[in-house]
């Protein structure tokens, strides 16, 4: 659904409709605590990688760590480090609020958390297991997991399907709520004031909201071209066009340089930004977006006001305690 | 000495001459250990700031700290935080190897460490003392300093001149040696290999060396326009031209947007870069320099090779132990 820039007004209207639609309440199934506990244990277990050095949590940090200002659900590097010190090729997205995503990965090639998981486990730059079977065998070698699987699923059978369901169940609990913007949108008109409130107005008027709609500040099942305005100097400075985006997953020419729209929730703590982690300065990121997506140079005032608004999208980060790993 | 870009070939030749000149051996006076010890104590003492929260070391970190990958001699933020949480206006330069600088501050307005020091002590955004007299009075209120001054200077008199000499004596010991590039330039031809060696060749051929000459990878007493090629999009993204540089110190129109040339030593650990800390990504910084100073878009290969070379400019960081502060 790539649209010529001239069709922006129509697009923006459509997106506002989608955005309202997105606010409808979802059905929520209460999580099974045993599945969640098993999933958390697997999430933190670096024995599930080829050289036993990398866990899901290595790149999706939930706990305060050195060299990390906040437990961002990702890490603070442009590209994460996998087994044998190998470097990834796209910036690690945060796992906070991943339950709100309909599509996973920057190119959206997975449509469920369970489906997403096969990627990192077997990617040679991430956890590098040669196959899902090898992964399951690795878990089977750790006797302590037998009881955890029995508690979660009723029998000691260890399968990838069970693993992925348990990890997904855990990940779905990773929610940050109570940001000031949420409070504001839920009716507390005092929650946003001054520059933050002005920033919200600019955010809407300038058009950021056309892709980053409330309440998720993303768009479900929706991909967008980036950069839309394919500026030579932006590509020179940041290399945005080196990665063909969704095209690498689908092979469809239409998908060249299209990307899943990232949510702006917790953007304060999830630097660096963009699929290649091009900058970790939020004001610069906002300027780049104005220039590359809306074909305009934002004023200093607009950029700062929007930044002030975005800083109010940080929710309360739950305290996650590390699990005891089975022997 | 602003030169029209067309005069670059001449400029580069001149700079190479200066660069060779810079290699001549300096006379070295062995530091007085008591002065150094006093200077170190003053450097770490946050009681010397108005609200007693900020020391020299608060912004010029020499010791591994949380949220800091390396003790960089600066901090890792765009702008440092002074008293009462006030935010600075220019990126903190590293104090490592400051003995090699002939001019201090981004705008070079001080020509000695002793002269530089009055700035941070009395700047309302930094340590905020109302006057040097108030500063000296503050030190006099700490009886433990009397003996330290006596050891260093032979009498218990506490003056700003003595303070600044002691702090400068300490700062002059903050030297990082033994980088691979130094080893290479000192004759160990094995010290730079492969991409690092190729990067050194590109660094010279492309013209980076015209301002960042060996062995300091800076230029003594020398200011340069930045950006030379005053590109709208660079200013939009990074706001480079918002700060008039040396003009703010001299008021001379010629000094508009001229800056002291920062040394590239330890650049790996001294992010973020530029007078306003515009980016902390070294590859982006290199691309910006090519674009803004040399009017060329570096190839991916050139940028990566130069980066690889620059990573070899990291010296051995001395272990600094925090002093015991007098009561």
Summed up, what is this model?
Two copies of one chain form a homodimer. Chain A is an all-alpha fold and 327 residues long. In chain A, 38% of the residues lie in helices and 2% in strands.
Describe this structure in words.
The structure is a homodimer of 327-residue chains. Chain A has 327 residues and is mostly helical. In chain A, 38% of the residues lie in helices and 2% in strands. Chain A is built from 13 helices and two strands; from the N terminus they run H-H-H-H-H-H-H-H-H-E-H-H-E-H-H. Chain A has helices spanning 8-21, 33-44, 56-59, 113-122, 132-140, 144-153, 160-171, 180-185, 194-206, 232-238, 247-250, 282-293, 300-310; strands at residues 223-225, 258-260. Chain A has a two-stranded antiparallel sheet. In chain A, helix 2 (33-44) runs antiparallel to helix 6 (144-153). The relative contact order of chain A is 0.16. Residues 13-26 of chain A have low confidence and may be disordered. At the A-B interface, helix 10 and helix 12 of A face helix 10 and helix 12 of B.
Features:
13 helices, globular, homodimer, mainly alpha, 327 residues
Architecture blueprint of SSEs:
Two copies of one chain form a homodimer.
Chain A: H1 8-21, H2 33-44, H3 56-59, H4 113-122, H5 132-140, H6 144-153, H7 160-171, H8 180-185, H9 194-206, E1 223-225, H10 232-238, H11 247-250, E2 258-260, H12 282-293, H13 300-310
Helix pairs in contact in A: 2-6, 2-7, 4-7, 9-13, 12-13
């Amino acid at each position: 659904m790539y649209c010529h820039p001239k069709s922006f007004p129509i697009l923006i209207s459509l997106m506002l409709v989608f955005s309202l639609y997105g606010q409808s309440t979802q059905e929520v199934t209460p999580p099974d605590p045993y599945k969640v506990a098993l999933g958390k244990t697997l999430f933190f277990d670096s024995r599930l990688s080829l050289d036993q050095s990398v866990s899901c949590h290595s790149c999706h940090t939930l706990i305060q760590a050195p060299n990390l200002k906040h437990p961002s659900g990702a890490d603070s590097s442009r590209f994460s480090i996998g087994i044998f010190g190998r470097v990834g090729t796209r910036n690690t997205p945060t796992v906070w609020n991943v339950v709100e995503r309909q599509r996973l990965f920057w190119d959206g090639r997975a449509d469920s958390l369970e489906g997403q998981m096969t990627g990192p486990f077997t990617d040679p730059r991430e956890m590098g297991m040669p196959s899902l079977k090898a992964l399951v065998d690795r878990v089977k070698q750790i006797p302590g997991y037998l009881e955890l699987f029995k508690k979660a699923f009723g029998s000691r059978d260890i399968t990838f399907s069970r693993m992925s369901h348990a990890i997904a169940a855990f990940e779905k609990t990773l929610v940050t709520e109570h940001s000031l913007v949420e409070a504001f949108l839920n009716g507390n008109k005092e929650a946003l004031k001054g520059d933050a409130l002005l920033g919200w107005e600019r955010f809407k008027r300038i058009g950021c909201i056309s892709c980053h709609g409330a309440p998720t500040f993303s768009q479900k099942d929706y991909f967008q071209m980036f950069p839309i305005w394919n500026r030579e100097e932006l590509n020179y400075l940041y290399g945005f066009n080196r990665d063909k985006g969704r095209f690498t997953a689908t092979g469809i020419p239409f998908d060249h340089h299209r990307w899943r729209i990232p949510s702006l929730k917790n953007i304060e703590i999830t630097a660096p930004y963009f699929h290649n982690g091009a900058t970790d300065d939020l004001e610069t990121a906002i300027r780049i977006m104005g220039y590359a997506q809306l074909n305009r140079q934002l004023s200093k005032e607009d950029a700062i006001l929007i930044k002030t608004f975005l800083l109010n999208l940080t929710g309360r980060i739950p305290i996650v305690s590390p699990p005891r790993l089975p022997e």
